[in-house]
Design a protein that fits this description.
This protein is an all-alpha fold. It contains 10 helices and no strands. α1 packs across α2, α6 packs across α7 and α8 crosses α10. The longest helix has 25 residues. The protein starts with a helix and ends with a helix. About 10% of the residues are buried.
């Protein structure tokens, strides 16, 4: 993979010898990258130990298991998409092919943006590409408490991931509306022609299906949001369980879909239908 190749390139450059006593720019860059990496590892291994207990570290690693598992689940939604990993598959602004793969370019550019937000000030965050890391705009990272761990870049990235997932789900209403339109084309055509928004909203609404969706996401929050241990049986979704025993209260997810996701999705559907005959 291109990422491994980039790492191997840095190692080979650092290990090569120059015919003169003058350090070449490439060697200087490699040495600087290597020192940055060593410094980051040293901070990771030493600094946190001064103010963080073993229980805190273990809790962090446990929560990272959730992130990794769900990341793999999310990736599994898509096919392999091998062309994204092939070198020489991307074109630059000048129209010429780039040596990098699309994935490598995407990761590199994403890391540059996140570096500006201070993501790599966090001691457990190490970029895959150390070169061209811009100056950070974020305040210094510190281990703090009381609802502020100083890791603002990762927080913003998590917010963005949530917002993009919500937006994708809501705007998928266009496809839902198209399917409904094709299923009852004559009825929808008459209402679209008369621009009757209320009648369109009533026609496309299925309260029974909405109830199924809301109860399903609430149960998913119960199952996916519980703390998994090897000593206790895994819950399958007990509505009477304490909300405090979950990473996020299932009732909050239910309310999110009830008051925001479903209504906004239906607004998208109505807006799409109103322009369906244009």
């Amino acid at each position: 993979m291109a990422i491994r190749k980039a790492t191997a390139h840095s190692k080979s450059s650092f290990g090569s010898s120059s015919p003169s006593n003058t350090v070449t720019p490439m060697a200087a860059h490699s040495i600087y990258t290597y020192l940055l990496f060593c410094n980051a590892i040293t901070l990771l291994l030493v600094s946190p130990c001064a103010g963080i207990g073993l229980d805190t570290v273990r809790n962090f690693l446990t929560r990272e298991e959730d992130t990794i598992v769900f990341s793999l689940i999310e990736r599994a939604k898509h096919p392999l998409n091998l062309p994204a990993y092939e070198e020489h598959a991307c074109f630059g602004p000048d129209g010429r092919r780039r040596n990098d793969s699309f994935v490598e370019l995407f990761v590199r550019e994403s890391e540059e943006v996140q570096a500006k937000a201070g993501r790599y000030q966090s001691q457990e965050e190490i970029p895959f590409f150390h070169s061209r890391m811009p100056f950070t705009l974020a305040p210094p990272y510190n281990f703090t408490t009381n609802g502020d761990d100083g890791n603002y870049a990762v927080t913003a990235a998590s917010d963005l991931a949530c917002l993009q997932a919500l937006s994708r789900r809501i705007n998928y209403g266009r496809y839902v509306a198209e399917v409904k339109f094709r299923g009852h084309q004559q009825r929808y055509t008459a209402l679209i022609s008369s621009k009757d928004k209320d009648a369109l909203m009533k026609l496309l609404t299925s309260e029974a299906q909405e109830d199924v969706v809301k109860r399903r996401v609430e149960k998913k929050a119960m199952v996916f949001g519980q703390d998994i241990t090897l000593d206790e049986p895994t819950e399958t979704g007990d509505m009477n369980s304490s909300q405090s025993s979950f990473k996020i209260a299932p009732s909050v997810v239910y309310k999110l879909y009830d008051e925001w996701v479903i209504p906004l999705t239906k607004n998208v559907e109505v807006d799409y239908l109103l322009h369906r005959l244009d």
